[in-house]
Amino acid sequence: MPRFEPHPERRPALVAGASSGIGAATATALAMAGHPVAVGARRAGKCEELAATIRAGGGEAFAHPLDVGDSDSVKAFVAAAQDALGPIEVLVSGAGDLAAERIHELDPDGFLAQVQVHLVGAHRLVSQLVPGMVARRRGDVVFISSDVVRAPRTRMGAYVAAKNGVEGMARAMQMELEGTGVRASIVRPGPTATGMGMGWDAETTGVVLEEWVKWGLARHPYFLRPSDVAAAVAAVVGTPRGAHLSLVEVQPEAPVEAQPEAPVEKP
Ligand SMILES: NC(=O)c1ccc[n+]([C@@H]2O[C@H](COP(=O)([O-])OP(=O)(O)OC[C@H]3O[C@@H](n4cnc5c(N)ncnc54)[C@H](OP(=O)(O)O)[C@@H]3O)[C@@H](O)[C@H]2O)c1
């Protein structure tokens, strides 16, 4: 008799922020692992294209517009996704953008917008989906955080604050959900090559990079691919019941340096 019921064969997954980047790659990876996927973002056309590509590859996918900044939009997305695919067993909360400014130079509405999209948006999804997971005594919630929680960067302080909020909420949930069968997990990507641009001109980018180096960051020039982060999410979700990858940080590997030539031995 196993200690835990294994995952059910059908585990529909909902990916918020799936029109590009990490979210799109995650939806693709989960579909390839056999999950029916519901994909949502404000650019609904991009989500439709992604769902069509997944279906053409033999997967099951449903697309719907989603703005995590709007409670009614979140409710409509969740309801439509569950009508189309059945009860959602996996939530990936990854919608986000970046206000690339110093905190004291960012206006309060800009600060609030960062908290809205990353933190309140994640909570809107949680409040719609986690009660059902608790009732079923199983489910996975994956929060896409950022390595800025471990090592904050300058010129993105509102983002740093919002992602700290996300991890705080996730850690409190891990305690509250203990014994319910629902696993809340944090995936914390390092620098990833996506559309999340910083919008700085070349001169400012140079200055910012110098700042980051000064603070011990930007150690090498390689970035993760979105598919690298997606693989980590798929691993978290695919971990058999009984274990919980509660926090996974994903970093780009540094370029491999040529082996220094061995000194020539004198005869
Ligand atoms: N790129 C990095 O270096 C990096 C590092 C660590 C963590 N992350 C995190 O990874 C996640 C994905 O970002 P990414 O790098 O893949 O950038 P991205 O390609 O710009 O993706 C962001 C996604 O979020 C969606 N989104 C933004 N605002 C939304 C809203 N109000 N409602 C619904 N969807 C919304 C966007 O779609 P629409 O614009 O169509 O709505 C898009 O699908 C973010 O949470 C980000 O903080 C990124």
TrEMBL record:
Which InterPro entries is this protein grouped with? NAD(P)-bd_dom_sf (IPR036291), Sc_DH/Rdtase_CS (IPR020904), SDR_fam (IPR002347)
GO terms for MF: oxidoreductase activity
Alphabetized UniProt keyword annotations: Oxidoreductase
Instruction: Name the SUPFAM superfamilies for this protein.
Output: NAD(P)-binding Rossmann-fold domains (SSF51735)
Q: Please name the NCBIfam families in this protein's record.
A: PRK07775.1 (NF005854)
List the PANTHER family hit by this protein, alphabetically: DEHYDROGENASE/REDUCTASE SDR FAMILY MEMBER 7B, DEHYDROGENASE_REDUCTASE SDR FAMILY MEMBER 7B
Give the source lineage, highest ranks first. Bacteria, Bacillati, Actinomycetota, Actinomycetes, Streptosporangiales
Protein name, UniProt field: SDR family oxidoreductase
User: Sorted alphabetically, which Pfam families does this protein's record hold?
Assistant: adh_short
Task: Give the originating organism.
Answer: Actinomadura rudentiformis
Sequence similarity: Belongs to the short-chain dehydrogenases/reductases (SDR) family.
Question: Is Zinc among the key words of this record?
Answer: no
GO cellular component, as recorded: membrane
What residue ranges are annotated as transmembrane? Answer: none
